[in-house]
Write a structure and sequence with these properties.
This protein is of the alpha/beta class. The protein has helices spanning about 1-20, 30-50, 65, 80-90, 115-125, 135-150, 165-180, 185-190, 205-215, 235-250, 270-280, 335-345, 375-385, 390-410, 435-450, 475-490, and strands spanning about 160, 195-200, 225, 250-260, 285-290, 315, 330-335, 415-420, 425-430, 455-460, 465-470. Strands 1-7-6-5-4-2-3 form a 7-stranded mixed β-sheet, sandwiched between helices. The chain has a 4-stranded antiparallel β-sheet with strand order 8-9-11-10. Strand 2 (about 195-200), helix 9 (about 205-215) and strand 3 (about 225) form a beta-alpha-beta unit. The protein binds pyridoxal-5'-phosphate (PLP). The site of pyridoxal-5'-phosphate has 15 residues, from helix 7.
């Protein structure tokens, strides 16, 4: 009797528990409604990209727009159509602007309609590329193979998508640190063995190289900034002298970072000479090729990158010259075993199996600190397959031709002064004036606010420069004319 009541209780209890556990999901109640708005969003974004030139590059953000993004946590639901309306009215007109052909600031790729579609597809799949056995990871492995082929690395090299080159450089420093100290550094941290380790890069290197040294625990002071020549390229003889000096002082050189396309002026270090030095002195040779490495796809630029194939690791971004939408940084490492031994951390809950979904080891999480990882590889895969590597290379070459056109326009104007010639896709110049630093900074801010063009500024030899980096495949001579004409007009007002 008692046992049959217990059974009845259990059955009732189970039913109750099942009732409590059933209910609404977050899927749409009306799929046709979301389909309709989804199609509208897609059409709107095609219009956004197609008609980019018709809009201002950028616009100042009115206070009331900014205030809309200071709301408390929305507890209640909202209709997607209303949220989309907010996006259209307040986000779209005040986005970065790098889709626009006249965006020339910093180093921003323009993206493509193909990449945008791929982003939507990967959003739908919602794949997690930390690990397990599924084709999205094969797509990432395919990109590693293509990247390896592009730079001339041997088979067996490893690769990993990351957010950007800043992180890829940091991972490279971490791997080089493991090469110098052994995997014991992972348990013991920086013991006496790490004392005196020094790395080298040029004065023109990106600031993230120093930051990588700081984050690695070796410290920014352990990075030597080597002098550059008149074209902002590292002076190999100065590098060799610095290595010799450190050695004779009892310090331990372990890494050299070359730059393929410097952020300020697009300088390419003599990678072949740096590689030779690194071999002679048994140093890790890393190349920061944030945008420049993809120059390997351009027949006219590839010879200038000679020596990159000798690197131990290369960091670069598909989201810059590769035109893949943000973000799509990449790290390529010659020695996959060392790469893996720097990061792989066995854990019971990540046990690998010979079959089933937990097969397919090693997993991407064995090659970097990210366990949850999105499907960045898909947008790079679509971009490379749809356009073909040659067409991406041709777009890269054309950005350099556009930069040369800007250089000629600057040279032809007596009111303008060229501060750095177009070695690659970047031109630095300024309006001549008594207080040129203040004036040129003001010209750039005025340009941004006018919506005509968006170059950025930098400081070269202590002088403020207007810096135009032609990264976007959409930029044409007419955008350069608009930039130069506006600089002359704004400068003339002073
Ligand atoms: C030479 C160089 N290195 C590193 C970086 C940093 O790359 P990311 O912005 O993808 O982190 C940049 C960015 O412009 C760069 O030009």
């Amino acid at each position: 009797m008692a046992s049959s009541r217990q059974e009845a209780d259990t059955t009732d209890g189970l039913q109750e528990a099942a009732r409590a556990a059933s209910g609404e999901t977050l899927d749409p109640q009306d799929w046709s409604a979301i389909r309709a708005i989804g199609h509208r969003m897609l059409d709107d974004m095609f219009d956004y990209v197609e008609h980019a030139r018709a809009r201002p590059v950028w616009q100042p953000i009115p206070d009331e727009v900014r205030a809309r993004f200071r709301e408390p946590l929305p507890r209640a639901a909202s209709d997607i159509a209303r949220v989309y309306e907010e996006f259209v009215r307040y986000v779209v007109p005040h986005a970065t602007g790098n889709v626009h052909p006249a965006f020339m600031g910093w180093v921003h790729g323009g993206g493509t309609a193909v990449g945008m579609l791929a982003e939507m597809l990967s959003g739908g799949l919602n794949a997690n590329l930390g690990g397990r056995d599924h084709v999205p990871i094969e797509v990432e492995r395919q990109i590693t193979e293509w990247a390896r082929e592009m730079v001339g690395f041997p088979s067996g090299a490893s690769g990993l998508f990351v957010t950007g080159t800043s992180i890829a450089n940091f991972l490279a420093v971490t791997i080089a640190r493991t090469a110098a100290l052994g995997t014991a550094v992972r348990q013991r941290g920086l013991t006496d063995a790490a004392k005196g380790l020094v790395a080298y890069t040029s004065r023109s290197a990106h600031g993230c190289v120093r930051q990588a040294m700081e984050l690695s625990g070796l410290g920014g002071d352990a990075l030597r900034l080597i002098d550059t020549d008149s074209l902002h390229r590292i002076r190999p003889e100065a590098l060799e002298a610095a290595i010799a000096e450190d050695r004779s002082a009892g310090r331990k050189p372990f890494m050299v970072v070359g730059t393929a396309g410097s952020v300020d002026v697009g300088a390419i270090d003599d990678l072949a000479a740096m590689h030779a030095l690194c071999r002679e002195h048994r140093l890790w040779f890393h190349v920061d090729g944030a945008f420049g490495a993809l120059g390997m796809l351009s027949p006219d630029l590839a010879p200038r990158l000679r020596g990159i194939e000798g690197a131990d690791s290369i960091a670069f971004d598909f989201h810059k010259w590769g035109q893949v939408p943000y973000d799509a940084g990449f790290l390529l490492v010659r020695d996959a075993t060392l790469h893996r031994s720097t990061f792989a951390s066995p854990a019971a809950y990540l046990r690998r199996e010979a079959r089933g979904l937990a097969a397919g080891s090693p997993w991407p999480c064995d090659f970097g600190p990210d366990l949850s990882r999105g499907f960045r590889a898909l947008k790079a895969w679509f971009t490379l397959k749809v356009y073909g590597a040659d067409r991406i290379g041709a777009a890269i070459s054309r950005t350099c031709a556009v930069a040369r056109y800007l250089e000629r326009r600057v040279r032809a104007e007596t009111r303008l002064e060229l501060l750095a010639p177009a070695q690659l896709n970047i031109v630095c110049f300024r309006y001549r004036a008594a207080d040129a630093d203040t004036l040129n900074a003001r010209i750039v801010a005025d340009l941004h606010e006018s919506g005509i063009a968006a170059p950025s500024t930098t400081i070269l030899d202590g002088r403020v420069a207007i810096r135009a980096a032609i990264v976007n495949h959409r930029t044409q001579p007419q955008d350069i004319d608009a930039l130069v004409d506006a600089v002359l007009r704004l400068g003339g007002r002073s």
